[in-house]
Write a structure and sequence with these properties.
Length: 341
Amino acid sequence: MTFLTGPLPVLPQTGAGRGGDTDGAPAVVALGGGHGLSASLSALRLLTTDLTAVVTVADDGGSSGRLRHELDVLPPGDLRMALAALCDDTDWGRTWRDVMQHRFQSRPGISGSLDNHALGNLLIVTLWELLGDPVAGLQWAGALLGARGQVLPMSTHPLTIEGDVLRRTAQGTRLEVVTGQARLAAAGVQSKVSEVRLSPADAPACAEALTAIERADWIILGPGSWYTSVLPHLMLPELRTALCKTKAKRCLTMNLSNETTETAGMSALDHLAEVRRYAPDLRVDAVLADPSVIEDQDAFAEAVAGMGGRPVFGKVGAATGRPIHDPLRLATAYHDMFGEN
């Protein structure tokens, strides 16, 4: 039953993209999931409010996995993180960001039903149950938080990601099918992901996400877990077609480390090759990369040119040296890139 009535909250849209706004800021769509998408959104919200996050919905671990299994809903965790990243850097925004990210912890020795649930996940699922519409629920959550942009799922159907993993053992190498984002993301350094798939393979893309891609000035894909946050957007047929056909300029943002549990042994060139394998018709205008993770800049530039674009090298990592993007450095790189085109 729907208890919330009246028109949906209208989020501010002030960009100068094909949406028709006039303040000079571009209309941007950022795709990904988890911490990688949060990093790009934290940077992009400094440049425009005509900002749409399109988020993966294949998570099956932790609080999100429990809610997905128990209530048959989209996994809310990556959507929650995207909303939190779009909160203003004000007392209001910081407070709501912390509220959304707060996790309940049971007393020692007690495994309560709320243990490790993020409050933001519960809030989002509550809105979905009241409204019966995942997109409307996210709009209401965004309005509550004063989000600088909107958050959309890549599909309104929960997705399952499955991968073929080559396991190296003392007896040799064997092929193993790993089902579930949480298990695939933790494949381990003694394994190599060789193929990934979404189920259902022909799930419809979120209509509002397709519209946002069509009217965008810039599309930002990545950073993030390559096989479970970035590539899934290229596996969904309707979404892949929209990304290939849009008139927007497209930027692929590389990770700050090639050695993750998903991509152990892969180089930056291997990451590009996987994008081309899953979306051979996708053309890019720019690939943003920190030079510290590019082994051969000439070879990298040649590979990017083969995708139709140019490499943009810049120091975008945190000053601590940890492999996380610094929002201000990333915002500066995006700002310069937007201004050159």
